[in-house]
Design goal:
Number of helices: 3
Distance between the termini: 34 Å
Strand content: under 5%
Helix content: over 70%
Radius of gyration: 15 Å
Largest sheet: none
Amino acid sequence: MASKRNLKKTVNYICSELFAECVANSLYNGKTDDADTEAMLQSIMAMHKDFICRISHIEPGMSAKKYFADFTAKFNEQISEIIDQIAG
């Protein structure tokens, strides 16, 4: 398991890259739908807040190794969904 500090840095980096990619896609894509772009940006920000908060507060009764494996799987799943929305 990586340190919590490095995990937070990784989450921050990935979310900022997703945010930038979403903004770039809205600017350079021929279709400009501000409502969809704004909703996607808000979902990225909500995901960021949720996962940063979850790093510091491990669920009681769950081992740290199991918790962070589940954390990583859920984070990767959310990232994949957002990437699919940006690409679509």
